[in-house]
């Protein structure tokens, strides 16, 4: 059983373990990442996490502004398989034709569910109770290629984007290791995706604005869970006749029997937080972060900012 010759395509921190596994189990010829960008508080030009780790491993790295700029270098590197994890670029048909076997993508959903850039976050925002990983062959369409394998897990009601990523990353590594073994043994699996596809679009700053008058308590809670890795969810609150935005760190659904005007503060309780009426039901704000302050328990915020029950506090129609 001979090892595969591979090229790895990836960019962020979540792709680093997959780079390491590919380096360990195959003959990794080359790593391709997105170009160096301004990062951190100082916004200094620096390499992405995959590029940093690839250089530490002594690998040759390409990080072009546009993938087409690296076509000749990639075409000159004989390889059996391309492994793609959160690379963030689209492959033209001529790139797809370069490897002997093809390009495999590790995707964090049960395709055809949640095709797109933010499957983990959207699985929570959309209130799904299960998800998983799909390793599939890349085709010109968006995440629509045939499957090599899938692995499924349940989504815990307490999961947020961070904890769900922590569960899915090792699941994907387990799947990728199985794929390498199967391919080295000559097993080429291509199973068409079945079922109605759904989408997982990239999150925007607009998605982070929480409006109790527009969202049910469960939907607001799910949105906070899905936004745990950013952009930070914010809820509008009125103070001294002005509207400010309060970052929300954690929530819990409240009782279903609430029936006040959306945005009304229903209760403030120690070790629970602030109970807010939503479009349907009510939700506990458990910890929050005012502008310029550290994250704090919501009941401490209520005491300091004079938040009292029966006040119309958390509501605003506009996001600007």
SSE topology:
Elements: E1 5-10, H1 16-25, E2 27-32, E3 37-39, E4 44-46, H2 49-56, E5 61-62, H3 71-75, E6 81-85, H4 93-96, E7 102-107, H5 119-125, E8 130-137, E9 147-154, H6 161-184, H7 217-226, E10 234-239, E11 242-253, E12 265-269, E13 273-277, E14 282-289, E15 296-297, H8 298-304
Helix pairs in contact: 1-6, 5-7
Descriptive key words:
320 residues, alpha/beta, Rossmann fold, Methionyl-tRNA Fmet Formyltransferase, Chain A, domain 2, 2 domains, 7-stranded mixed sheet, 6-stranded antiparallel sheet, elongated
Question: Can you describe this structure?
Answer:
This protein has 320 residues and is of the alpha/beta class. The chain has two domains: 5-184, Formyl transferase, N-terminal domain (Rossmann fold, 3-Layer(aba) Sandwich), CATH 3.40.50.170; 205-304, Methionyl-tRNA Fmet Formyltransferase, Chain A, domain 2 (Roll), CATH 3.10.25. Helices cover 23% and strands 27% of the residues. It has eight helices and 15 strands. It has helices at 16-25, 49-56, 71-75, 93-96, 119-125, 161-184, 217-226, 298-304; strands at residues 5-10, 27-32, 37-39, 44-46, 61-62, 81-85, 102-107, 130-137, 147-154, 234-239, 242-253, 265-269, 273-277, 282-289, 296-297. The protein has a seven-stranded mixed beta sheet. Strands 10, 11, 12, 13, 14 and 15 form a six-stranded antiparallel beta sheet that branches. Strands 3-4 form a two-stranded antiparallel ribbon. Strand 13 (273-277) and strand 14 (282-289) form a beta hairpin. Helix 1 runs parallel beside helix 6 (161-184) and helix 5 (119-125) packs antiparallel against helix 7 (217-226).
